[in-house]
Amino acid sequence: MVAVLAFCKTRTGARFELVQTVAGFPMFDNSIAYTKRTAPVSRSLVAFLALFTLWWLLLFVFYRFPGIDLLVAKRVFTATPCAPAILPGPASFPGKVCGVFALAKNPLFEIMRAVTLALPYIAAVTLVATVISSWRKRGADWRTLKTDRYVAALISLTIGCGLIVNTLLKSYSGRPRPRSTDLFGGSLDFVQAGSFAGRCLGNCSFVSGEASSGGWLLCLILLLPPQLRLRLGIPLAIVSIMMPVMRVMTGAHYLSDAVLGWLLSLVVFAAVIAMIDFLRSARSTQS
């Protein structure tokens, strides 16, 4: 009897197995067989874990160093002398800060904001129409890699921008916007990012809804055909970055609100893509 090591290629991967030959006939000993190659970790899962970790790391930095938010807000705030108060009130308090975020009323910014606000709605309607068209044309076989990506984008918009940002965080975070805090002409106390101790009662500053929409628009670059990614991807990326920047410059949000809102959409999009990739992989394995 002679024992040799044989290389076998199986459906689940490559394996080395001990082969015993008796009188020229092979006999496999599976007791010492081992897997040489396992299924690779999906890139979407790696992207999600990296973005998820980065989001919490940035939240810790902004929470631990709130001066970052204040420094940026002060750069775009113009202090002015307070008008004399006729009756006792907040305007008569010693140390009262008065002033404006000058760009908040800038006509160009208002036009740009109106245009950028419409883009996510246009993109969402286009995606829904594309998925419905694919379903009508292909019937039961409408699920393709491309349509799954479209569905992932719609799910991430609903969960990220809709549920997490605008329904939960902005409603219950309690963080006042810069223009609402006493440091920048308002009446509420400043609280750092991640603190739910503020007195804002609704539509609060943490996190920026428009910034999250901008982050979602950036994700759509991955859905573009390769021949259009450079032509349309660059303008889309510029708009994606402009949206959070404008919110900071107009005093509507702190830097942390904009950065974390923008990044949150990328985290949710990567999570949905990773889940769909996992389901596709499981389905193909079963078939």
3D structure, described in words:
This protein is mostly helical and 287 residues long. It folds into two domains: 2-35, no CATH class; 43-286, no CATH class. It is built from seven helices and five strands; from the N terminus they run βββααββααααα. The strands form two sheets. Strands 1-2-3 form a three-stranded antiparallel sheet, with no helix packed on it. Strands 4-5 form a two-stranded antiparallel ribbon. β1 (2-10) and β2 form a beta hairpin. α4 runs antiparallel to α5 (209-219). The longest helix has 32 residues, at 107-138. Residues 1-39 have low confidence and may be disordered.
Could you outline the blueprint of secondary structure elements for this entry?
Layout: E1 2-10, E2 13-22, E3 25-35, H1 43-64, H2 67-75, E4 78-79, E5 99-100, H3 107-138, H4 145-172, H5 209-219, H6 226-249, H7 255-286
Antiparallel strand pairs: 1-2, 2-3, 4-5
Helix pairs in contact: 1-7, 3-4, 3-5, 4-5, 4-7, 5-6, 5-7, 6-7
